[in-house]
Write a structure and sequence with these properties.
With about 350 residues, the protein is α/β, with parallel strands linked by helices. About 30% of the residues lie in helices and about 25% in strands. It is built from 11 helices and 13 strands. It has helices at about 15-25, 45-50, 70-85, 105-115, 115-120, 135-140, 145-150, 165-180, 205-210, 275-290, 345-350, and strands at about 5-10, 35-40, 60, 95-100, 120-130, 155-160, 185, 225-230, 255-270, 290-300, 305-315, 315-325, 335-340. Helix 6 (about 135-140) packs across helix 7 (about 145-150). The chain is globular. The termini are far apart. Residues about 50-55 and about 220-255 have low confidence and may be disordered. It binds guanosine-5'-triphosphate. Guanosine-5'-triphosphate binds next to helix 1 and strand 11. It catalyses: GTP + H2O = GDP + phosphate + H(+).
Length: about 350
């Protein structure tokens, strides 16, 4: 049987991956797509944001980052999809893997060559990287992950050009071409791009990847190097049961993400007072915005019968009206903050004060 093409969709935190995916899943283009979602932090908010009707074909992985702690889950997810497809239980002709904003696409792509079962069912169609035109210059200056995602791309999709002027777009494009002269660059504001620019690119050329990273195909785990991310929950606990961080494993060179980036979760089963919350979020974004890499949440507002989806990147914050709360669904608030040296306790205390 023909191999199933898989697209690795990558891009730094908040670049616009889910927005693009949502658009693709809504469009009538003839592709049947299965999605593998990997989100950093324990709460999969993207699941609320992605279109509901495709849900049965969305596999979530949120116990760690796809390029380090959950590579085994990726293999299992892929082989399980292939088995269900062969058994006629589900039907799809393409897989899209949305990585976390901090993932190194190298080890994700590697999985398709190293794992025999995966290699016998799938081929990497392309690594597609979404680049945030508003924040990319700073991200490229500061985070190796952002550089790697651009370096590994077979196609670069430029989002948020609506937020910057033409000169800034040109300057960014010139930089992207210097980092990765191979990858064509296409503008894709709010995911508006032809499907032919994203799927069926047949763009993954192993030789290029080997030039970029001579260890690419070696089965040695984590030959790549990236720095540290903690994943804190609201109790201040730093690492979950799947934690695989360096401080637990001093005996081998381990995959890590950028220093000082940490995630924490705020949860509550009391509703928010909208005005208080608006004011508080406005204030923290003003003060801590430059260090707030990504934040999102599903919110329960007092008196509202619909969920409110809230999200942002640095100072740019927005809300959308989400689905109705189900009749038997327990209402609650879930927020995830990913940032550099954010004062977790202050945030949590402040948010608590916005509850009814
Ligand atoms: N102005 C503008 N905003 C955009 C564009 N694309 C996405 N956004 C917004 O940017 C925010 C992040 O978009 P997502 O699609 O969730 O980004 P992501 O890459 O999936 O984020 P993570 O998976 O959390 O890293 C959302 O508030 C989007 O509405 C764009 O082209 N222009």
């Amino acid at each position: 049987m023909a191999l199933i093409p898989a697209t690795i969709l990558t891009g730094f935190l908040g670049a616009g991956k889910t927005t693009l995916l949502n658009r693709i899943l809504h469009e009538p283009h003839g592709f049947k797509i299965a999605v593998i979602e990997n989100e950093f932090g324990q709460e999969n908010i993207d699941n609320e944001i992605l279109v509901q009707e495709s849900r049965e074909q969305i596999i979530e992985m949120n116990n760690g980052c796809i390029c380090c702690t959950v590579r085994g889950d990726l293999i299992m997810g892929l082989t399980d999809l292939a088995r269900r497809r062969a058994a006629g239980e589900i039907s799809f002709d393409h897989v899209v893997i949305e990585t976390t904003g901090l993932a190194n696409p190298g080890p994700v792509a590697q999985t398709f060559f190293i794992d025999e079962e995966v290699a016998s069912e799938y081929l990497v169609d392309a690594v597609v990287t979404v680049v945030d035109a508003r924040h990319a210059m700073h991200q490229l200056d500061t985070y190796k992950e952002a550089q790697r995602q651009v370096g590994f791309a077979d196609k670069l999709l430029l989002s948020k050009t609506d937020l910057v002027d033409e000169a800034a777009v040109q300057q960014l494009m010139a930089r992207l071409r210097r980092i990765n002269p191979r990858a064509p660059i296409v503008t894709s504001d709010f995911g508006k791009v032809a499907i032919s620019e994203v799927l069926d690119l047949r763009g993954f050329n192993l030789n290029d990847k080997l030039e970029l990273d001579p260890d690419f195909i070696s089965a040695q785990e984590h030959a790549h190097e990236h720095k540290h991310v903690h994943d804190h929950d609201h109790d201040g606990h730093a690492c979950g049961e799947h934690c695989d961080h360096e401080h637990h494993h001093h005996d081998h060179h381990h995959a890590q993400h950028s220093d000082n980036i940490a995630a924490f979760v705020f949860q509550s089963d009391r509703p928010f007072q909208a005005e208080k919350l608006d004011e508080y979020l406005g204030t923290i974004v003003q003060v801590y915005g430059p260090r707030m890499l990504r934040y999102k949440g599903v919110l329960w507002m007092d008196g509202a019968d619909r969920k409110v989806i809230f999200q942002g990147v640095h100072q740019i914050m927005g809300t959308d009206i989400g689905a109705k709360w189900g009749e038997n669904e327990a209402r609650s608030n879930k927020m995830v903050f990913i940032g550099q040296n954010l004062p977790q306790d202050t945030f949590i205390l402040g948010l608590k004060q916005c509850l009814v």
